[in-house]
Specification:
Elements: E1 3-7, E2 10-11, E3 17-20, E4 38-42, E5 46-51, E6 54-62, E7 70-75, E8 78-84, H1 87-97, E9 102-105, E10 112-113, E11 124-125, E12 133-137, H2 138-145, E13 161-163, E14 174-179, E15 182-191, H3 210-213, E16 218-219, E17 222-231, E18 235-238, E19 243-248
Parallel strand pairs: 12-13
Antiparallel strand pairs: 1-2, 1-18, 3-9, 4-5, 5-6, 7-8, 8-9, 10-11, 12-17, 14-15, 14-19, 15-17, 16-17
Length: about 250
């Protein structure tokens, strides 16, 4: 995207919908890599979702989801209020993934708080793993790709802010910075899982990039790539905006 609005939970519409099992527990590519084959495309009033191998099979998800059946959703150790989408939508996803599942929506009045150990002002997030923003420098990916036989795209790491400039992994040390007068805080390096090994075009798994990252980004029995970010205020950020760092932390690795 060329520009995006940052709200209390993260970017507008970002991870406000979530696929779950019948007990309202979140599903992810960790267990169901075929989820990579589902592709949403934003329209003026919602998302059109299609299967990459079956582009004529699609379903429309409106932004203004009708809130009918309220449920308690589970993401990792968190529980929060959400609403089920229509039966037609649930049946479409179940058919595409060949697993019984349903789509939940998080309304504006749901408050899912980030980990107290890293929060500074009771920040909230959406259906993300844990934080509203994940930031990665393009140079970190470029450096990784010099070590790989086959270069990988940034979608393996699913950041929602990518910046240029600086040394590889300089995001590790950005403690406080601003973009377009919005203040951000680097709070926790992001530990990576097997989703990074899933080709987002085919749903196939491989050993990389975790095998290579383990040789130089391994600490505390985890592999780190990218920085989890909190923010203090809302607003818009646009491609080309400058990052101004006002405080640095010690190098993580």
């Amino acid at each position: 995207m060329q520009s995006a609005e940052l709200t209390a939970t993260g970017f507008t519409y970002d991870r406000r919908w979530m696929l779950t099992d019948e007990q309202n527990v979140f599903l992810s590519q960790r267990s169901f890599p075929q989820m990579a084959l589902l592709q949403p495309v934003e329209t003026s009033n919602g998302f059109m979702v299609f299967h990459k191998n079956k582009p004529t099979a699609n379903i429309f998800i409106p932004f203004n989801t009708e809130l009918t059946k309220k449920v308690n959703a589970t993401i990792w150790d968190d529980n929060c209020d959400a609403y089920e989408c229509s039966n037609d939508i649930n049946e479409w996803f179940s058919e595409m993934l060949q697993i019984k599942c349903k789509l939940l929506y998080m309304p504006d009045d749901t408050k899912r708080f980030v980990d107290n150990n890293y929060a500074s002002n009771k920040e909230i997030t959406s259906f993300s793993d844990a934080y509203p923003v994940l930031m990665i420098g393009q140079n970190a990916l470029d450096f990784l790709n010099t070590k790989l036989e086959v270069p990988l795209p940034i979608d393996r790491f699913r950041p929602n802010i990518v910046f240029t400039g600086g040394q590889p992994h300089c995001e590790d040390e950005m403690a406080v910075f601003s973009i377009n007068n919005i203040r951000f805080f680097g709070v926790k390096p992001c530990a990576r899982c097997v989703i990074t090994t899933i080709n987002q075009l085919t749903g196939e798994k491989a050993a990389e990039p975790l095998k290579t990252l383990a040789t130089y980004r391994f600490k505390n029995n985890k592999i780190y790539f990218g920085q989890n970010i909190l923010h203090q205020s809302n607003g818009h950020i646009t491609v080309g905006d400058k990052i101004t760092v006002s405080s640095y932390s010690a190098a993580f690795i």
